[in-house]
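During the no-cost extension, the postdoctoral fellow (Dr. R.K.) reprocessed legacy sequence entries with the updated structure-token encoder. One reprocessed record is reproduced below for audit purposes.
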Amino acid sequence: MWTEGPPQNAASNCQETENLRLPGALGCGIMTSQTLLPSSEPVNSREGNQVEPVQIWKARNFICEHSAEELSLTQVARAVNISPNYLSEKFKQVTGINFVDHVARTRFETARNFLHDTSLRVSEVAFTVGFQSLSQFNRVFKRLAGTSPTQYRMANSDMSRLG
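Re-encoded structure tokens follow.
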């Protein structure tokens, strides 16, 4: 669950999203039956009949640990010692979403935490969690949350409940 107080860094959300239940959210785990499974070890694939390949598990963890940085498919593939094409194909097959969407969802989950627990401006949150532009952040956030980051914060912020 979410920790008390502001997050220490964008990567700190990797472990915090493990037990999150949110339709369509992946965070740093793989969603199966509306529940995120911990990313600390390989898990069953979305088909439920195979263990997640070690390279995909390593790729998801690398993405989670480096989500605040600029990430590319090539960079992640190099980190797990496989070709970018193979990673792209296998990642989609195992997780059910493509690489770019997984990175965006991971950053989105971290941003939600920041919007709940910090007084950072929306633009500061966007860049802190790794989005390269504010418009990209707003577009992704609205697609995944159904509302803008500002509206989300107003409706869900711990700070709004205190005031």
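The first strand starts at residue 31 and ends at 32. The radius of gyration is 15 Å. The remaining legacy entries will be reprocessed before the final report is submitted.
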